[in-house]
Amino acid sequence: MANKNNKRKSIDKVLTGLGTIATIALLIIGGLAWWAYSFTTTNVRNELAAQKIYFPPKGSPALASPAIGPYLDKYAGEQLLTGAQAKAYADHFIAVHLSEVAGGKTYAQISSEVQANPANAKLKAEQQTLFQGETLRGLLLGDAYAFATVGQIAQVVAIVCFVAGGIMLLLVLLGLWHISTL
């Protein structure tokens, strides 16, 4: 019987040691993920705040379009500060207005036309407008929205790791208690 208890105690010590390592690893990963969430969220907010972009005010004719209003009314009058707001603004304000330039053609399409007809001032103006609009839209989607999404994923990872680390800590404590009772 003593030999069986010693074997059991040895197994419990190994499992408790592995559980301790897993607990530490989960808490470290959780801490790093939380840092990533905080870093991306803060930087996205700070960069967007510096741009001083505001949604049109409530009741504004700029929100009247059915392609714009349903998506931006909830942000009316607010400063653009989050990834979700950046996506809404890019997809339902800038993109809608860009579709009204040059009959819905893209910058690449208009650029080809400008190359074929370099003296056409109207095409050059449309090209410039599309370039600026598509660049801003790309920055809002690629930098603000994408990084904000990565930050949200990091937040979820952090929470999962903290919960799993807490469960592992409880199991380690139960393992230590079990070892002490053998």
Kindly summarize this structure in a few lines.
The chain is mainly α. The chain has helices spanning 2-51, 69-72, 83-99, 107-116, 121-181.
Characterization of this structure:
With 182 residues, the protein is an all-alpha fold. The chain has one domain (2-181). It contains five helices and no strands. The longest helix has 61 residues, at 121-181. It is elongated, with a radius of gyration of 28 Å. The model has no long low-confidence stretch (mean pLDDT 94).
Secondary-structure map:
Blueprint: H1 2-51, H2 69-72, H3 83-99, H4 107-116, H5 121-181
| Total number of beta strands | 0
**Main pleated-sheet profile:** none
* Integer average pLDDT: 94
Structural class designation: mainly alpha
Global Rg:
28 Å
Q: Top keywords for this entry?
A:
182 residues, mainly alpha, 78% helix, 0% strand
